[in-house]
Design goal:
four-stranded antiparallel sheet; Alpha-Beta Plaits; about 65% helix; Multidrug efflux transporter AcrB transmembrane fold; 26 helices; alpha+beta
Amino acid sequence: MSSLLTHTAGPRAKWVVAGVWMVAMFATFAFNLPGKFADAEQNESSSFLPGDAESTKALEATERLQGGEQAALVVVYRREGGLTGADTTAIAADRAALNDLRLAATSPFGEPRVSSDGTSAIVQAQITGDGESDTILDPVDAVRKRVSDPGGGLEAKVTGPAGYAADQIKVFEGINGALLGAGLLLVLVLLALIYRSPVFLWIPMLAIVFAELATRAFGYGLTEAGVTVNGQSSAILSILVLGVGTDYALLLVARYREELRNHEDKHEAMALALRTAGPAIFASGMTVVAALLCLTLADVNGTSGLGPVGALGIAVAMLAMLTLLPAWLLIWGRRAFWPRVPRFGSEGTDETHGAWRRVGERVARRPRRVWAGTVALLLVLSLGLLNFDDGLTSGNGFRDDVEAVAGQRLLEKGFPSGSNAPTDVFVPDAARAGAVRSAVADVAGVDEVRPVRRDAEGVLLAAVLDPDPFSTAAFELIPDIRAAAKGAGGPQTLVGGGTAVERDLRVAAARDNRVVVPIALLVVLLILIALLRALVAPLVLIGTVILSFAAALGVGAVVFDVIFGFPGSDPSLPLFAFIFLVALGIDYNIFLMARVREETRRHGTREGMLRGLAVTGAVITSAGIVLAGVFSVLGVLPLVFLTQIGFVVAFGVLLDTFLVRSVLVPALTFDIGAKVWWPSSLASSSDDRASAGAPAAGEPQPAQSR
């Protein structure tokens, strides 16, 4: 592998590699592949469900019955104290004007329904979707321009499933541009602070941009192959490529800069940098790829879709940093580092000493006390998991107050909360429709059940729920409704609609948490065993990462509730946070322990850990800060779930960088000693040299290192 990686460091190869990447970028823009990737996003809740979910089957049945998937477009009017005659006239005029618009794919608006207390009225139409966002967005925008906030004490809002869908589309339409812009700006600032060069920072930055564009080009091919990608997974993909790409660039550049001081020929310096740092970057990248691919086992299509897309992003970022970045660094040569140019023969910092060496020596004095205290701290932070609440839904998942949510609150003041999004009940046996209607109406929490459509295929009923149809209280009604419907109409009777979709998504997410997490742990453990050729060290690393994950999620649960006041967390948050923190946390441990193992072969376990920590400390810390900063950019988006992902992963990465990798892992290694490498031959080697302080030939005395 080392020999293969050095091929890009040749005098001619650098031009070939740079040329191939440039041609690939021209082709990407010529065919507008990133734009096609964005157009292929599917943001409807139903598209995330597996094919065997009852909501999916119900949707297919209702589409056949109604000629397509329909979403209610609801206009709700309200005046405190009661609607006036002028209000009734205005509502009728609005209805006539809206019908005159002849909105595409939208049925005529029906007669107004007035609430029993006379304070509210709703006017409703149906939009038949075709998979295109404009089919939903254009009618909703047109209606909002006509009726929203008429003033004079009369309130009007546009809501319903179509209103919610339109607000989600608006968020996701601008999500990639805003996120990519904020992420690139942050990376640019951090690179400027790290390298302090007005020229050099643009080289890794452009390599990261190329990786981002290439990922979206290849990602379009995955969507054509049937992989589900939504706005959230697309946003997370951008963050992964930016963060991981920057990390790998930092690791490679640090070694290249070191070799430039030892070798006059820049090609030789790059070859050595690729031969030493390249395998660690490759091993790290493949570990993240393997962990992300475990997501393909998820039932939720949006989650399983992130698996191959995220793995693709990591692979492309890794490839760019091992091919394109070295080529550009060689083309620019030493002058790219101006004004801090690494000259051949110049004195650099002795990287086996310094601040991180001193940290390691302090830990080594009382390793058992250090790791016990650190574990206790992480366990205390993990107690926040007791405060974890999965009450986040599509109805309360916006950080900003969007019109669909405001309209829902307005509707609830005069009508049953579920009036704008009834639950669908499909009865294939028309003769049993009456019995099903009565049985479902008797379920506690169901306000009324009314027929919607009847034909040869069956009967469609609409069950109006008392609670908000996008709330957890409504989701909990679905099992009882299904039991009642099937009891009266037979097992072929199906219950679907927005509330049932959300409930089935939560069930699938809970299953994914139980199944994917242990599989991902096992995969990462096997990779670590193969990489370190040991059993004890991988088990120690896995244990520390699990503790770090639990602490990060525990702190997040408290912060979301106490500081941010979020209504809850998404049920899939633990799975996403686990995959990212385990994969990315193991990343840094791989860089550390791979170097420690290398040093242990020459200096023993104790000295090997001290030297490995000293050499990798600065660059891994820089990489951790960059990755945490990039994930925190998710907080600029107006969705609670992405804000939570950004916070938990950013906090977890910093926790892993400054506490787990720098303190806990070294303390455990010092305490276990050479046995940490069991059953490899290193476990039987004596640590007397390091423990007694006798250095290898050519190494400074311990007193000097202090």
